[in-house]
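Changelog note: in this version the structure field was regenerated for every chain. One regenerated record is shown below for reference.
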Amino acid sequence: MTVPRYGTITSALLLKLLVLVMLVSASGCKGSAGLVHKTDKGSFSSRPKYIFLFIGDGMGMAQVKLSDAVLDSGNVLAMGSFPVTGVTATHAENRYITDSGAAGTALATGFKTSIGTISMKSNHRDTLRTIAEMAKQKGMRVGIVSSVGIDNATPACFYAHNAGRGNYHDIAMQMATSGFDYFGGGYAEGDFAHNRSKEGAIKRDIPSVMKAADYRVTTGREDLLSVVPGTRCWAYTRFDGKAALSYAMDREGEELSLAEFTRQGIRLLENPAGFFMMVEGGKIDWACHANDAAATAHDVAAFDRAIAEAVAFYRLHPDETLIVVTADHECGGLSLGNAMQGYESRLPLLRRQKISQERFSQKVAAWKKSGKVTFAMALDSVKVYYGLGYGALDPALAISLQERKILGDAYQANHNAVPGAERFASVVTGMLNSRAGIGWTSNVHTAVPVPVFAAGAGAEAFGGSYDNTGIAEKIMRLARIGGRQ
């Protein structure tokens, strides 16, 4: 399927506008991170030895600015201070609005493919070599890190090849045969019982397969710290029902953060031959699917702290390090402004939310199961976890009689619905978002172009507007690790 011509024209105009906006924004914050942009006559004259590719899943420019505004601590996000900015289109080969399989393939290989495909051509016969595989073949060490399952679409696109992103067990098995040096972050959804028994016979468990392939498998902070550089490793922490890390705002002390997995990856990968590391902030996308603005802001910030680890490494190796930050697509159609608030947005209200909508939903489900939590008690929890109801503290947090009725109806509907339909939590989150001036147009992906931020050796190649396949192509050319097949 060819992308419609009218979509191409619209995308081109939007790309140019976004580039202008982003270049102006970046020009005012170069100095905050101390990153210097060296202008070379040839964009590909520099040859980076250490390459970082950060992918904020679902992260459009609005998500970046939301995090900056909500969690402002006097410092801009590290990615916002990068000296080179660009913007990319994200459409798949067969659909204007992409998914992470097709988009991840474009970023990993430089080729477009069909929805749901993992680093294969859309004919589902021909595999596509990834920049990570090329780097490994060249003798560099390679690391893949994600805050979601390590066999989820985006990380999978760098080490696996499969016709369907949902074939989790088959994908996870390819970690062991990849020869890559470090996998970190989420667990493998392919190891869950329903995936291991999907086709009848019980398939091998992933940790045993990894150990048999001489990988050290770690499950905690001290265990990971004890791994000696040069040892192949798969490191994960406590995970949820989809093999992912907790949302950043829900993370507890014993759980490793995305930044920690990145820091330890750098420690294990650093060597004279160089390395390539892909780090995905996967739960940004999940928060956007849920239209949970506060969780989105926190996970963008957590992603940025991982980027800061790369910046710290860059400062030690400024002439040999390249850092590229981008997204596979935007999710949710996030708007910083809505019809309800007009020009009076109040983004700091989102700081009142203390846990993710998902975590609050779990609490609501437990209330339903116990049958002992009244609506009045539920409103007390709304006040604790979202700040709604603290009208004396801030009039914007007051709950009107009409809103109380809306919440009451949602609470009753939630208790009458089938398990898992936590409508009450969604209504509460939406109510806070609206007051803050947040708008959402969708709970799925959009075709909005996404930002690119770059710093270091060869960074100037990533400025301007181009297709997402250009990310991989530019990295290949800069690192001299291969090219289009």
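Spot check on this record: The CA atoms of residues 149 and 186 lie 4 Å apart. The radius of gyration is 22 Å.
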